[in-house]
Amino acid sequence: MKNKNGRRRRNKAARKEASAGNGEGDRLSKLPNDLLLNILERVDTLDAIRVCVLSKQMLKLPTMLSQFFLSFDSIPAYHDKARVSSLSLSDVFRTNSAVAHVTDNILTTRSPEITISKLKIRFILMQPDSLTIGKSVASAMATQKVDAAEFEIVTEKPYKICSSADLLHHGKQFNDFVCACPNAFAGLRRLWLRNMRFGALDIPNILTTCKLLESLRLTHCDSGIHSVLQVEHAQLVELLVDYGQFERVELICLPKLKHVAYTNWSSCEDPMYFGFVPQLSKLSLTKIGVRSEKNIELSQLLANVPSISELHLDFRSEKIWIIPECPKLLASVLSKLQHVNLDHLPEGCDLAWTMFILEAAPSLKELCITVWDHWCIIFTDKEFRKENGFCDKADVKWKPYAPNFKHKNLVKLTIYGFQPDDNFV
């Protein structure tokens, strides 16, 4: 009994000490509201709410936030490699429902006098959660000032296990969502869609609904195999297309477009057509090239785009799919080029061909080259490579047009993976 009583006394004393410590040491809740809000707006909103419910003084702060980031993957174990395997789909779906509930609760109870400077919601396309989110955001846009709203929409099935029927189903789900909440999409600034197959007119109709859209990203999305995506929009500034089965992306009329990125197109011809894009300045192309596919001539691809200042080409450690051209042919399209990144050139590739960019771009200030056989992305099986047309050697034939050429404006040359051999020197 003595030991037991002694242990009780020690535990009681420890609790008193901890309580006293909390009274003096709860520094977070004693900070000024403006500083607390600044801290809370830097983390996921669900995490911010978890912090606020621990203190009576902070309970009102979630309704005073001006920036929100709500995500279905905001589960404490989601980003912990040691624990993520224990998560079930029901855990993720439950958090998705929590995102919908919190979105509705915060947007309907917060003061309309506080401007929402940023509202980003990442959620799974499933009912009734999507509808709850869409209607809550639409109501907030109608009754409050929302500067920038963003949807990042994920499907229940990941792309790797999606059939064509699944992709079509996801596309229909999204179309139904847009039809049910047109006012929410009318006020969106950024939209990222994944794993969807649309009808021929669906994407143009979506863009018509999203009148204020500034950024559109499509990942594993298309309108069917060998379909053509035609894009017209008055406000779009950024277009990112990752994978998908488009034969061609045609940028018809985009007066404010500044940045385009296209990853792993499936066409054997030029992947893009540039119409009226007077402000386009940044272009990024990423492709795992094979022998049968057509190489790109920048003079043809960029014939209507004389304003490119940043060019990023990623070869994914495989075939070089750019043709070195005569500087005279490229002078009109690369005259304003200032920054070039050539990523994942295969090891053993002669770099002399990259000089054609220097010769054709007198305004170039920075050239960055990365030479790397990235074993996580390249195929190593010899039979597979042969059957699918992968090149064994990636050398590019090129002869300098000006043997004594000197570049007057280049400020920085960076080569990652440099080796002191004939390919580099």
From TrEMBL:
Superkingdom is: Eukaryota
Q: Record's Pfam families?
A: F-box, LRR_At1g61320_AtMIF1
According to the record, the segments passing through the membrane are: none
Q: Where is the composition biased (Basic and acidic residues)?
A: 14-26
| Residue numbers spanned by region Disordered | 1-26
Q: Where is the composition biased (Basic residues)?
A: 1-13
Q: What range(s) does the F-box domain occupy?
A: 25-72
Q: Which InterPro entries does the record cross-reference, listed alphabetically?
A: F-box-like_dom_sf, F-box_dom, F-box_plant, LRR_At1g61320_AtMIF1, LRR_dom_sf
Name of protein:
F-box domain-containing protein
Q: Which organism is it from?
A: Triticum aestivum (Wheat)
